Fold this protein.
Amino acid sequence: MSVPYSQIKPIPLRWLWPGVIPFGEPVILAGPGGTGKGMAVTDLAARFTRGLPMPGCEDEREPGSVVLIAPEDDPNTAVAYRLRAARADIAAVHDLTLTDAGSPFEMPGDLGELRETVDGLPGPVLVIIDPLLACCTAPVATNMGARRVLAPLQRLAKETGAAVVISHHTVKSGQVAGSKGLTDAARLVFTVTPDRENPAERVMSPYKANICGTATEQRFTVEGDGTAAHAVWLDRAAVMARREGARTGSGSPARPAPARPCKHPWLAGTPAQCGNCPLRRQAAPRTAGAPRPAPRLPSAITRTLITAPPATPPRPEAPRAAAASRPVPVPAAPVFAAVRATAAPGGQPVTTEIGHEYEDLEEAQEACGQDAGRALVWRRRDPHTWAALLRPLAGGQPVSYCVSDHTG
């Protein structure tokens, strides 16, 4: 039976972190491995257990309890140190990585035990699942499979009023792993990636925000070594001031991105401009509307890479007779022919007659045996090869040859 919206009472949304993490609705925090997602959610859990303001906020709140499910991290050697480095109230953090039966927590099968745990804790509750795929027994690669996992978790968050943060992975293209139904069903999705200009900073960007209009970008870094490593959130005003200073040339400029290796190995060690080459030359300032000057390249590279007039006039072409001194290419095809070269009187060009072609060298030599003084044996019907081989016979005179359909 349908219900008119006049009978549906609007309920204001409560926020654990305004614009980022609400109560009663799961939030997906996706990013590649090693970007510090686990330390970021641990810092949020520490603030929640002590009632401290969330990053960028000023108001303190009532301390709450945290239910942590982290199957990829050892609770003794990793999670315990991480919570202490974030200065959490460790008595308010409850681990549910293993169920009461001693088996790993699985979704959606063990959501009933999670519901009992949340109902038994005092005050507000924050549930952290890190990561999602390590707890799923149903595949999330399909639309129905993703919704079968996320829908019961959404119902649990709505009925208990708990805040739920789900850590997830992204693929190489930057998209959230799994079916698109996963991000379609979620109301809030954020991605964590290293900053392009300063990789030490992690950028937490809104990927989808259906319940708060426009979500805000957050940034954090990881400080400390070993077991003391923890997340430190950056002040948004300071980040924006640094960006403005870098854009206008005042203030502290942004840290330059590391140089990427040149994708053109033959340009290594040269000042040639290359889009990915750390040796590229900075472009000189030019007047607006003026044509961009051509890159200055070494002459050896100029002749091979670009088409440009040579700096010096071209050298005159060598005489034809000099071609006889060049090595004659040896054809690959084993074809032989008997050739008769006849010198014409008065210095006229030498005339050649092509006899029968033979595939066997001995047969060709036998065919030329009666006139060995003027008959030669050549390979292949190549006009350049014929000309080069006939010039020595003509004593350097111009050669007239006729080979098959090639005439010169």
Notes: The chain has two domains: 12-248, 331-407. The longest strand covers residues 350-358.
